[in-house]
Design a protein that fits this description.
about 240 residues
Length: about 240
C-alpha cells in the first residue's frame, strides 16, 4: 500500500475543511487515496496531521477503519481523541443499508421528541431490514432503557456488541442494564471493558467508582441499595444529525 505524503494530504484537504464542506472533502480525498491509506497518517508525529486524518476518516471511512480510529481514542492529543470519537459515531450511524437508514433516521427523530414507542417501532424495523446495522441496535437499546425495559435493552446492547465489539456506548449501556438488575459486579466489568476501549469517559469512570465503593462497604450490595444514574446512558445518545 502506497503511503501518503503528509504535506500533500494537508494541502489537498485544507480548502474543503476551511469551507466546512464534507462532500468536497470526500471527493478530494476519494479521487486520490483509499481510506486505508489515510489510516497510515493516524500515527504521524505531527498532531495536526493526525487530527486532519481522523476528521477525514469520519467522512470517508467505513467499518474497515473502525479499528484504527478506536486506537486513536488513546492518543495523547485531546483533539485527536475527540475527533476520533466523533468519527466513530459518524461511521456507526451511516453503516446501515439505504432502506434501513431511512427507518433509522425516523426512529432517531422520534427519540429526540421522546416518542419512545414510535422510536422503538422504527428502530426495530431498521434492524429487520438490516440485521447487521449495529447502531440501530444500540439506539434501540437506549430507547428500551429510557422506557424501563431493561431486558430488551440488554438484549439490544448484546446484539450491537456482537456486530461491533468495540462499541463502547453499547458496552456501557449493558453495564447500566446490569445495575438495574442488581448485578453490580457484572456492571462494573462492563464499565471496565468500556473504559478499556475509550478511557476518556468521566461519567462511566464515576459510575464504576460509585459501584466499587458500594461493594467495598457491602459486598452483597444489589438493586435495593445501588446508586443508579440513568442519565449516564444519555452520553451515548449521539447527535441524530450524524444519521443523515
Amino acid at each position: 500500500m502506497n503511503s501518503i505524503h503528509a504535506d500533500e494530504f494537508l494541502t489537498v484537504v485544507a480548502p474543503a475543511l476551511e469551507r466546512g464542506d464534507p462532500q468536497a472533502l470526500g471527493e478530494a480525498v476519494g479521487s486520490r487515496w483509499q481510506p486505508a491509506q489515510v489510516c497510515l497518517l493516524l500515527t504521524h508525529t505531527d498532531p495536526e496531521v493526525r487530527r486532519t486524518a481522523v476528521v477525514t476518516l469520519g467522512i470517508v471511512g467505513g467499518r474497515g477503519e473502525v479499528g484504527a480510529l478506536t486506537r486513536c481514542l488513546r492518543d495523547a492529543d485531546d483533539q485527536v481523541y475527540q475527533f476520533a470519537e466523533d468519527a466513530l459515531w459518524s461511521i456507526w450511524f451511516r453503516t446501515g443499508h439505504a432502506d434501513a437508514a431511512a427507518l433509522f433516521r425516523e426512529g432517531m427523530l422520534a427519540l429526540t421528541r421522546d416518542e419512545l414507542a414510535e422510536a422503538a417501532s422504527r428502530l426495530t424495523a431498521a434492524t429487520e431490514r438490516d440485521p447487521e446495522f449495529a447502531e440501530a441496535y444500540n439506539q434501540l437499546a437506549i430507547v428500551h432503557y429510557l422506557a424501563g425495559h431493561w431486558e430488551a435493552s440488554q438484549a439490544a446492547c448484546r446484539r450491537a456488541l456482537l456486530l461491533m465489539p468495540t462499541h463502547f456506548g453499547a458496552m456501557a449501556g449493558l453495564g447500566h442494564c446490569y445495575v438495574h438488575h442488581g448485578e453490580l459486579r457484572q456492571a462494573i466489568d462492563c464499565y471496565r471493558r468500556a473504559l478499556a476501549i475509550n478511557p476518556r469517559m468521566p461519567a462511566i469512570v464515576s459510575a464504576k467508582q460509585r459501584l466499587e465503593s458500594q461493594l467495598a462497604v457491602d459486598p452483597h450490595a444489589g438493586l435495593a441499595n445501588a446508586e443508579t444514574d440513568g442519565t449516564v446512558l444519555l452520553d451515548f445518545q449521539a447527535d441524530p444529525a450524524r444519521s443523515r
